[in-house]
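Hey, I'm writing a tutorial for new members on how sequence and structure tokens pair up, and I'd like a real worked example in the thread rather than a made-up one. If someone can provide the structure for the chain below, I'll link this post from the tutorial.
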Amino acid sequence: MTMTEPLTQSKKEITIDAIDKQILNLLIANARDSTRTIVKKLAGMGTNMSERGIGKRITRLEKLGIIHGYTTMVDLNQVNMSILRLITIKFTSSKDFVTRLAEMKDHLANAPYCDFSARTNGNIDWIELKFFNNHEQAKQEEDLYRAWFGDIMEDYRSYDLDIHKMGWQLFDEEDFDRFIKTTCKKEGTETCPNITIKK
């Protein structure tokens, strides 16, 4: 399902059009943009709307639950949170595995340094992103974490990451295809033999 397809919520059909998507992407990039700023940015993208019209759309998106809230992006180096660590875990079986996993999830939900955690499938079972002030802090947390939950871990690996991009945007299949085709055209069609480039 793409963002342009109908979504079902409480037996009501919710549709998001191209303008809604543009507004959402602007708010994802900067949640503090005023309606006046959004008007100017949309105009630069070829969409002309009034501040009132944009305000109504944002209110609608909030009421529908599509916008859950607003957040702030910070420069991690300037707030002393420059160490980003990726953790992968493969679980081992234990008779109280379900209880221990629930305890681990609860621990991560409350840990201020854990930004993301998720169950996966494939060769690993769990993945996490954690932020720390320094390497010593990251090592201390790793030692304690493995002591606390090592009984359900068969394999634990950690990687320090050098961030070059952080952020995302809404897109649909047409946006994806357009980006891929543009890149293939730039890099040469031989890199994408199954995609026909329209001239």
